[in-house]
Amino acid sequence: MELLFLGGKSGKYWSNHGWNTLSLGGGLACCFTSAACSLCACCPSCSNATSSRIMYGVILLLTMILSCILLAPGLQEYLKNVPFCKGYETSLNIIPGLDTAGYPFDCQEVTGYLAVYRVCFIITLFFVLMALIMIGVKSSNDPRAGIQNGFWGPKFIIIILCMIGAFFIPRGDFGVVWMYIGMIGALLFIFIQLALIIDFAHVWAENWVSHAQNGSKGWFVALAACSFSMYGGVIAATTILFIFSTGSTAGECKLHEFFISFNLILCVIISLISLHPKVQEANPNVGLLQPSVIALYITYLTWSSLSNSPETNCKSGIFVGSLSNSTITPTPTPGHSPANEKFDTQSIIGLIVWGLCILYSTVREPSGSGDDSEEVNEIQDEETGGQRVYDNEKTS
């Protein structure tokens, strides 16, 4: 083994201490595996729909983490110290006698916005394929439902292999084409995100109103406090945008002034609509909480769009600084280096909002699985000694 890894004194050190380290690592791995199994056994039972949404949420979360790593500052410089990468200048080879300089790999291909495009391209194809497979499936008794709710090992393996293969796609116009597809997808996701936030606001309001009607009136006070706090945030954010995102003189950034004013008008309109007697008659639980949440969200979208404005003299000087005095370049410009791509505040807040929406969508029970739905194939924990994932749907 000394000849296989490292020679001389380094090999002797490895033979004396390396295997002890591996043995310790193997023991720790066994302990962690047992602990993970015990933790899973302690989890409560859940429906197939919930467990599947959680797993798909995990896939999206891992993809997001991988994308952040690919855009991490200094990754390109770090990869120069890895064998098989261009720019690797150290004389130490992993295997003695093996010349890695003869076939270096350009590790720049696995960093930057183009690498993120490749990863997201595969994830998009995966979810589109799953959507096509599930067309017409209305019951877990359908054989295709097993593909949706299971085969997680093969799914992860296929995704990983396809991601590796995506890095062999020639550059060509891939980056430009996928950029425009990503813009369309981002627009659609904003509407989905808005729908999730509206649903969250309604569930929040209904829950607190129900508590207030059945118990202490303090719930009404808390509801009003949260609503007016969010409206206060909207007013403060709008004021900051007018001060910092409209230029140094009046009329210098008319487009910015229009968007900020239009957003404020929308906030007022949705608030008045929610208080209209017809709306109150249709849904008595509608109040100021729902429009305040929506107003805060669309104000965030306004700030996010203004922060990405190409007009540098109109850009806000507050909350747009990056982690390394640079910003992410969202468009694939010629000659752009991945080393110049960094995370800015707008990107970080966007990831947080995205993560919260994904988390809510995974734990939120669908409307068709309420109290009137019949749980079939459920086995109580007392009978099995473990947890079950059951189908929570009506039998035909």
TrEMBL record:
Its main location: membrane. Residues 365-396 are annotated as: Disordered. It is a multi-pass membrane protein. Residues 371-384 have a biased composition (Acidic residues). It comes from the Eukaryota. GO terms for cellular component: membrane. It is found in: Membrane. Keywords: Membrane, Transmembrane, Transmembrane helix. The chain crosses the membrane at residues 20-42, 54-72, 115-137, 149-169, 175-198, 219-246, 258-275. Belongs to the TDE1 family. This is SERINC1_3. It comes from Lepeophtheirus salmonis.
